[in-house]
Amino acid sequence: MNTLVKRSDVAKLAGVSEATVSRVLNNVGPIREETKNKVLQAAKALNYQPNSIAQCFARGKSGNIGVIVPSFPKVHMLSTYYFSEILSGIGRRLGESNYSLLLVFQPPDQPKNYVQLFQSQKIDGCIILGAKNHESDKEALIHLHHLDLPFIVVNQTYLDYPFHTIDAEHYEGSYKAVSYLINKGFRNIAFVNGSNDFSNSSERFAAYKDALKKAGIEPMENWIFQGNYSRSSGIKIAKEIAPLIPQLDAIFAANDRMAIGLMQGLSELGYKVGKDFALIGYDDSDIASMVNPPLTSVKVPLFDMGKIAAEKIIQMLNHEITEQIHIRLPVTLKERASCCKQIT
Amino acid sequence: MNTLVKRSDVAKLAGVSEATVSRVLNNVGPIREETKNKVLQAAKALNYQPNSIAQCFARGKSGNIGVIVPSFPKVHMLSTYYFSEILSGIGRRLGESNYSLLLVFQPPDQPKNYVQLFQSQKIDGCIILGAKNHESDKEALIHLHHLDLPFIVVNQTYLDYPFHTIDAEHYEGSYKAVSYLINKGFRNIAFVNGSNDFSNSSERFAAYKDALKKAGIEPMENWIFQGNYSRSSGIKIAKEIAPLIPQLDAIFAANDRMAIGLMQGLSELGYKVGKDFALIGYDDSDIASMVNPPLTSVKVPLFDMGKIAAEKIIQMLNHEITEQIHIRLPVTLKERASCCKQIT
DNA sequence: AAGCATAATGAACGCGTGTACATTATTTTT
DNA sequence: AAAAATAATGTACACGCGTTCATTATGCTT
C-alpha cells in the first residue's frame, strides 16, 4: 500500500482527462462507449479504488450513519438481546446501501451532544437507541430537531415532541399479555415494570391497568413493582413478591431478563413457575426459550425495527420524507410453558 | 445547520491567520498565550467544530477502525454473547481514543476483500472477528498481511501465518474443564465440539483428548460429536447422545449455547442435568446463569479481548509495535450446579 | 455545404484542513 | 547597540475528488 492509485493515474493510462474518468465512474453525462471502456479498463488494470475520504470531502457528506448506543454502568449494552437485534437490523439495511455504520457509544454521565457529530461532519444522519425521558436526553434531541438534523429514535416515543420515531405497539403488547393471562383464568396478576425513564414502561403499565379493569379487576397498588430491566432487579423483586405468592396467580414482567430473575429468585424461595404462579415476559429474547420452563413472552420485531430505522434515515437523507415518521410495529404473543399453572 | 462555521471564520474573529487557528487547536508550535486565548475564545464564541472529513482528508487518514463482523445465514451475529462482548470491549477502548468505530457486516457468500476498505481509505486499521480456517478467509488475511496493513484477528489463531492475534487459552480452558470433571469422579465424558473452521474448536478437542489420556482414560471415538455452536445443533445432538447416557457421566460442550441445547434436548428425552449426567459449557455467557441448573462454564474474557484488540490496533497505527502480537488471555472455570451429579 | 444543435471531452476550481516555508517580532548574546 | 538566535505568525499549497464552465467533435437540418 505504498502509493495509492489515484484518478490522475487512471486518466493518464486511459489517455483522457480526469474529469472524464470521474464521469465514467459516477455515470454522469454522456460518454462515448469507447471512452468508457478505455477508462474502465484502465481503472481495472490499476486496481483503482476511489479515495472515500476525498469523495466525502468533495461531496460534503461523510457517508456515515451514526448509531448511538447508550451506556449504563456495569452493563455491556450490546450484550443485550434488545440492542444487538436492533443493531443487526440496522446493519442489514445499511449493508445494502452505500452508507457506513458508525457505532457511537455514549459515554456515561456525560452531557449528550449529538449535534457535534453532525457539525464535525462525522455523520450524515443518526439513529438513537435507548433514549430516555430525562430532561438531558430530551434536550439533546430537541437541539437536533431545531437544527433540522436527520435523526430517528428507536423504541422510545415522545408524546410532546415531533421527533421521528420507530417503536412497537407496547400498549397492545402488554394488553395482550395481561388479557391472555386473564383468559387463562388468572385474576390475581402482579406487574413488574422497568425503569420509568422509557416510554415503553409507561405504556406497559397503562395497558396492564386497562386490561385488568376491562375484565372487572381492580389493579392492586401493592402488586406493582419496579425494576430496571436487569435480571438482578428481578431477583431482588422476587424477595418482595414472594410473600404475596399465595394470593397471586401470575406475574407479568416488562422484559425477559427480569422475568428470568423472578423465576430464579422465586424458585430459590420455593415457588415454581408454571406450578405456583404463571409468568410472562417481554421481548421474546433468545433466552426466553432457554429457560425451564420456557417463558411465554411478547415478541417484539426488534430486528425489523432496526431495518426500518435505517431505511427511514436513508430516505430522509434523500429528502424523500416530508411528514413526521411515527411508525409502530405490531407485537405478538409467543406462548410457551410458563403460563400453564392449573387454576385451583 | 445552514452554514457551518469554518476555520476562516474563527481566524477572522480572532484577528489572526488560519494557520494560527490551526496551530492553537492542534497544539503545535510555539504560540503566544494571548493569541491562544483570542483564538480559543473566538472558536468558542462561534461554536466552531473542525470538519472531521476535511481533517481526515488533509491528514490522509480516515480516523476509523473497522470491525469486521462475519455473517452466517439465519443468525444475527451480534445477538451472540460472544461477539457483542468483544465489540463492547472494542467500543470501550476506542471511545477513549480519537478513533471511530466503523462496523462492517461481512456480506454472506461474498469473497472477502478487506483490502478495499483500506484502499478506499475508509479505515486505518481493522479488527477481524469470527475469521475461519477456510482458504478464502486465509487468503483475505494474507492479502492484508502482504500489503503490511494494520489488522488484528480476535479469537482465532493461525499457526502457519504470522498474523497479529488476540486469543484466549482455549487449550488450557478445555483441559481445565475436562480435568475438573475427572476430578469430580466422572470418567465417561463425551465431547460436543463446534465447527472445525475455528482454531478454538481444534484446541478444545486436543485438550479434551489430552486431559482424558493424562487421567488414563482412552477417548472414545463415538463419544465425540460435532455441532455448529448453535443451540439447535445442541438439541439435535441430544438425540444422538441420548442412547449413550447410561454409560456417560458427563458432557463437555464447546460453548454454552450448545450446552443449553443439550440440556433441553436431553431433558425432553428424560435425562436431567446434574442428576443423570454432568454438563459443562464454554464462554460463561450471560445465559449460563439463567438456566436451571446453572451451567458450569469456562469463562473467557471476551470484553477484555476486545479492549486489548483495540488497544493494539491503536498502537500499531502509532507504529509502536514492531513484533508480532500473539496474545492469549487466561480463562477460568466458573463452577455452577450443572456438574453436581452424584457418582453412583 | 453551411449553420446549428447536441454530444463528448477538457480545463479549472472549490471543498476545509494540515503544514512546509517565508516573514516578522522578540529575546538573547556579544 | 548591533548581531544572532529564537519565538510567533502569515502565506501558499497540497490532499483527491466532484462539478461547472469552456471548448471541441459529431450529427442533423435546410
TrEMBL record, chains A, B:
<feature type="domain" description="HTH lacI-type">
    <location>
        <begin position="5"/>
        <end position="59"/>
    </location>
</feature>
<dbReference type="InterPro" id="IPR010982">
    <property type="entry name" value="Lambda_DNA-bd_dom_sf"/>
</dbReference>
<keyword id="KW-0804">Transcription</keyword>
<dbReference type="Pfam" id="PF13377">
    <property type="entry name" value="Peripla_BP_3"/>
</dbReference>
<protein>
    <submittedName>
        <fullName>LacI family transcriptional regulator</fullName>
    </submittedName>
</protein>
<keyword id="KW-0238">DNA-binding</keyword>
<dbReference type="Pfam" id="PF00356">
    <property type="entry name" value="LacI"/>
</dbReference>
<dbReference type="InterPro" id="IPR046335">
    <property type="entry name" value="LacI/GalR-like_sensor"/>
</dbReference>
<keyword id="KW-0805">Transcription regulation</keyword>
<dbReference type="InterPro" id="IPR028082">
    <property type="entry name" value="Peripla_BP_I"/>
</dbReference>
<dbReference type="InterPro" id="IPR000843">
    <property type="entry name" value="HTH_LacI"/>
</dbReference>
